[in-house]
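The data are quoted verbatim for reference:
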Amino acid sequence: MTVRVERTLRVDASPEDIWEFIADPAERARAISVVDRFDRRGETTIWHIDLPIPLVRRTLQVRTKDVERNPPTDVKFRGTSKAFTVTGKHTIAKADHSATVSNVFVVEGRAPGVERFFERNFEEEIGNLERALRRYLDEQ
């Protein structure tokens, strides 16, 4: 089963400033609540995630890698694990004195409950990403 979720954010910042955050795999990983920790190995980031779903009793390793990078407008990543594959795309567009960040995530589950977890928790996770982005921009 596959689930696709989308949300667009409006941010009072330039696309270039947003790009610095959104294109950084470490910043993206830190914003996700189920990422317990992550390791960088060259161009690959390993997310160690703890999903609160039945039949998954241990931390999963998700190998993520950027598959498209078009500074400063979009980045697409793909992550794979034994339980699921996730593809995420963040597209930044200038809008008057602000910018929009369109986020699209597609999760293909191989373990029962994975898609439902992401579908139920997407709003909270995208909220985490938005708060992390705004904190990052405030610190600049």
Notes: The mean pLDDT is 92. Residues 114-139 form the longest helix (26 residues). The radius of gyration is 15 Å.
